[in-house]
């Protein structure tokens, strides 16, 4: 099963400057582990010490925020697209 992951520019240094990755995973948690296997060091940028997504990152599965789905246990299907979007603040 293949899932497409959109990588924001600040994290592309972990993906050899690739803006997208193709990974196999059944959930967001598995996806993060698969990304860490292929791109060592990226998990520490995505997750806090408890393994939860960092507050300043938003993760979307097919345009749905995982916070309103099942969090890291959100199920993934073949062909899904996961977007990693850094939070934007300012004023």
TrEMBL record:
Name this polypeptide is given: Molybdopterin synthase sulfur carrier subunit
Pfam assignment, any one: ThiS
Superkingdom of origin organism: Bacteria
